[in-house]
């Protein structure tokens, strides 16, 4: 002990002072070390958070506190129900190319692996409102789940149907359709493509704002669903308004002997609807070489389908019109024409084939009916039509 004391004195140090001065330095050094470690971790976490925020672009994220369960950020549509579920609304952001491509998908397996109720798709090609909407509302009443509705109006028209209406928010994205030009067929293909997005739609009926139903919904559904054929008027007109509109430049895709004419108002099944929207063989020829005075809406679908699917067509329309007055358009009928006898004459003397058997029931719809006829039709709809 004395030796150690002497050695410390020789070095110029006081042992007791050395001991006292060395002890209090231990605590500040450790605190400084912990502080520096904590500061470094904080800086590292800050840099990491900034990197993650920029990488994933999380902005203004609000965590809901209404549920105690953790909800996933998103759910990929990879389950079966997401494939078969119809669109929740008809409005979308697809252009025509995207829409036609999407609608052209068709299952090659006939049996559906889910419960499917086949529906009628009523497609209204209009300029604006549907003046006969109240009559159609009565026609559809009580048959929810058996039909869908699609409306193609002018792009600038905004629908004004109340939420209770069957026509509420059934207007699809549209473009201007000009009578006799390819834009009219484009509108019809657009209607078909939108309706094909719903896998339950099996039959597709093209109508105008001047059309009315001549039978109850139950009869219309039964008539169409039990038919072996689709209904499109197709015939060979050798005169100037038929073959006279043919252009030799359509060869060899369409020959003169294939050229057909008919009414644009049709009813076709799903197989033929897919054939119409996927067509890229006949469409370019008609777009380029069938222009007024070749009215393409009277020839394109009629010629194309008669070449590709002749055995599936009844070669007649379900929509009655009157051409007896002459001119480029059929006759229009208003309030003064409405009577039970008027509608009875539509069927008197008429014969046609239904599933290869003669029948008098050739028509389910009629046009052109003027808006002035609405009130009297509503008063006598059950007497005239059974609904």
Summary keywords:
single chain; 387 residues; alpha/beta; four-stranded mixed sheet; three-stranded mixed sheet; 14 helices; 9% strand
Q: TL;DR of this structure?
A:
The protein is an alpha/beta fold and 387 residues long. It is built from 14 helices and nine strands.
Outline the structure in words.
It contains 14 helices and nine strands. With 387 residues, it is α/β, with parallel strands linked by helices. The radius of gyration is 37 Å and the shape is elongated. Strands 2-1-3-5 form a four-stranded mixed beta sheet. Strands 4-9-6 form a three-stranded mixed beta sheet.
Strand and helix map with partners:
Layout: H1 2-10, H2 15-22, H3 26-56, H4 80-84, H5 96-103, E1 119-125, H6 133-140, E2 147-152, H7 182-196, E3 201-208, E4 212-213, H8 217-225, E5 267-269, H9 270-278, H10 283-289, H11 300-308, E6 319-320, H12 340-345, E7 352-354, E8 357-359, E9 365-366, H13 374-379, H14 381-385
Parallel strand pairs: 1-2, 1-3, 6-9
Antiparallel strand pairs: 3-5, 4-9, 7-8
Helix pairs in contact: 5-7, 7-9
């Amino acid at each position: 002990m004395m030796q150690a004391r002497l050695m410390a004195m020789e070095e110029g140090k006081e042992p007791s002072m050395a001991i006292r001065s060395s002890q209090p330095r231990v605590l500040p050094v450790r605190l400084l070390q912990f502080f520096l470690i904590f500061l470094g971790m904080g800086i590292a976490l800050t840099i990491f958070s900034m990197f993650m925020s920029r990488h994933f672009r999380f902005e203004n994220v609000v965590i809901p506190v209404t549920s105690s369960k953790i909800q996933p950020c998103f759910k990929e549509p990879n389950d079966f129900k997401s494939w078969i579920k119809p669109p929740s609304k008809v409005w979308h952001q697809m252009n025509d190319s995207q829409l036609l491509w999407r609608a052209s998908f068709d299952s090659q397996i006939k049996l559906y692996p889910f419960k499917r109720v086949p529906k009628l798709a009523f497609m209204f090609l209009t300029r604006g409102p549907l003046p006969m909407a109240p009559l159609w509302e009565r026609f559809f009443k009580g048959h929810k789940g058996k039909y869908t509705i699609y409306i193609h109006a002018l792009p600038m028209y905004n629908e004004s149907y109340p939420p209770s209406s069957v026509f509420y928010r059934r207007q699809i994205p549209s473009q201007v359709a000009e009578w006799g030009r390819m834009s009219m067929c484009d509108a019809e293909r657009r209607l078909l493509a939108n309706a094909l997005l719903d896998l339950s739609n099996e039959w597709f009926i093209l109508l105008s704002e001047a059309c009315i139903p001549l039978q109850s919904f139950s009869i219309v559904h039964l008539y169409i669903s039990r038919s072996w054929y689709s209904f499109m008027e197709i015939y060979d007109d050798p005169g100037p308004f038929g073959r006279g509109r043919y252009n030799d430049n359509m060869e060899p895709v369409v020959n003169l002997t294939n050229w057909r004419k008919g009414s644009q108002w049709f009813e076709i099944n799903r197989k033929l609807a897919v054939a119409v929207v996927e067509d890229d063989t006949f469409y370019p020829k008609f777009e380029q070489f069938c222009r007024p005075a070749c009215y393409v809406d009277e020839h394109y679908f009629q010629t194309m389908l008669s070449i590709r699917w002749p055995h599936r067509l009844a070669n007649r329309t379900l929509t009655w019109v009157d051409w007896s007055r002459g001119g480029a358009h059929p006759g229009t009928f208003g309030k003064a024409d409405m009577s039970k006898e008027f509608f009875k004459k539509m069927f008197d003397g008429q014969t046609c084939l239904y599933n290869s058997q003669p029948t008098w029931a050739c028509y389910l719809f009629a046009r052109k009916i003027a808006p002035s006829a609405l009130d009297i039709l509503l008063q006598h709809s059950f007497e005239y039509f059974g609904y």
